[in-house]
Amino acid sequence: MKDFLKGLWGQHPVFRQLLGMCPTLAVTTSALNGISMGLAVIFVLFFSSLVVSLIKKIVPNQVRIAVYTVIIATFVTIVDIFFKANFPQISRALGPYIPLIVVNCIILGRCEAFASRCSVAKSLLDALGMGLGFTWGVFLLGSIREVLGMGTILGFQIMPQGYNHLIIMILPAGAFIVLGLLIALMNRIEER
Amino acid sequence: MKDLILIFVSTVLINNLVLSYFLGICPFLGVSGKIESAIGMGAAVTFVMTLATTIGWLIYHLALVKFNLIFLEYVIFILVIASLVQIVEMFIRKFSQPLYDALGIYLPLITTNCAILGAALFMVTKNYSFLESAVFGFSGGLGFSIVLIIMAGIREDLSYADIPKHFKGAPITLIVAGLLALIFMGFSGLISA
Amino acid sequence: MKEVIKIISVLTIVCLVCGFLLSFVYSGASEKIESNTKKAISDAIANLAPFAENIEEIKLGEKIAYKLFDKTGNLTGYAFIAEGQGYQGKIKMLAVIDINLEILEGIEIIESIETPGLGARIQEEFFRKQFQSLSVLPQITYTKDIPENSNQIKAITGATVSSKAVVNILNKRIKELSTHF
């Protein structure tokens, strides 16, 4: 249970470990994009951890990173094909950031630091926890940016008419600033 | 020639990989503490990125497209980058000890630098020619280095500033990056075709 | 030596397994991906040219265009795909034009990754609507103020680059088309 929960808060991949920054910032222009990215990461993380912890004994130490990246790249391609076939709209919005899950340090990091050392069951719990932690992180970031930048959440208008859209929130600069403020907030909550 | 210059300027300043595509943020947050290490990392990335886009272009167009294996793109690119890094490391160690001492520790980190894979993938989606890909790879790396070095300079000074406790470390770095991204947006007026 | 053989064999096996898995998944999904693309195009044509009863695909050089026929079998216009570089990446759109290649019926954006809230607004109706009954002679132009001529559209504020890209891509493709007819 501890393996599952730590990813949600104590060792939160985005806010505490600062892993997987690139998709975190890039795709969070809206809440929906955030969720889709989160789900894709959970899928890849889950199956990569499964395979890595299954084959950890037969992989020679020198090439383990290469083997892990190939496995991860395979699952990422599967996700990419799946989105293209079933959700073309989302596939277009996430654009080039789906393939970049390959180099998302969360996945390689968890495979290397956890799945390659622990039992299958533990690795899966760890993967799920980290994946869900990542998902709520990007969902939160995406929601904040969408509300402030476009006045909507998941596409529904929630800000009053005449609300002046803070376009900067949707631009790259806004992503950096909001994430910086969120991490500072987390630091403060944690300290209490 | 005009096209190449256009790609160069827009990749270095306007569509900067770090500030507008968020690629390579991990080393950006990790290594950008000191100017010297920023220069080392930047040089290593520029070098590998140029090689990765050119070799990636050759493999993609001469092998993958020809044999209808485009779906293997990600797996192949990541293998190319990983082996490139390995080869470059061995090569440098053999021929130039000083260069190895300067770049050596940054090379392994590059495999998981998303800017390199990102550049390779962009070169495919933007449908660049061979020469354009080479220029794109080089200018992408150069843009990365410039931002990394600027950031390192700011962070060296930041260590003397009185920052609120909870903002120390990552938060203030991200906010500075946000301001840098705003400043770089000013460059977008440079090109008006 | 034994170690080296082990390394090579493990790497080879992993790559082979992954390669087979991927080609399996891909061959299962490729049909669906293709039909998605086709559907996006036929939906866009139905939207822009409700009068088109029959659509015939024609090859013009390397690219494809569509002849649109009405109920009585008369050729009423053409649909074509135009794509090119926008601000962030590729913009791909479908446009319908009259039989003389003089007046646009409208455009639909099929693919674009422009900045949300700015460039991405090229997909919104207020922008696309400007291309309805727009004259393309001598070519489409844009302005940042109120359009004055029948061949002029108003660029989106703060997203001139994306608006301009749409105009340029269309102009280029229409010029290409006119060499075929």
Mean pLDDT across all amino acids of chain B: 85
* Beginning-to-end CA distance, first to last residue of chain C: 68 Å
Which regions of chain B contain 5 or more consecutive residues with pLDDT less than 50? none
Largest sheet of chain C: 6 strands, antiparallel
The pair of chains with the biggest contact is: A-B, 42 and 42 residues
**Beta-strand content of chain C:** 25-35%
Q: What would the principal axes of the Cα set say about the shape of chain B?
A: globular
Q: Walk across the major sheet of chain C and give the strand order.
A: 1-2-3-4-5-6
Order of helices and strands of chain C: HEEEEEHEEEH
Secondary structure: number of strands of chain B: 0
Listing every helix as H and every strand as E from the N terminus to the C terminus, the arrangement of chain B reads HHHHHHHHHH
Structural class of chain B: mainly alpha
Helix content of chain C: 25-40%
Overview of the structural elements:
- The complex is a heterotrimer of chains A (192), B (193) and C (181).
- Chain A has 192 residues and is an all-alpha fold.
- In chain A, 66% of the residues lie in helices and 2% in strands.
- Chain A is built from 8 helices and 2 strands.
- Chain B has one domain.
- Chain C is α+β, with helices and mostly antiparallel strands.
- Chain C is 39% helix and 28% strand.
- The chains are: A mainly alpha (192), B mainly alpha (193), C alpha+beta (181).
- Chains in contact: A-B, A-C, B-C.
- Chains A and B meet through α2, α4 and α8 of A and α2, α3, α5, α8 and α10 of B.
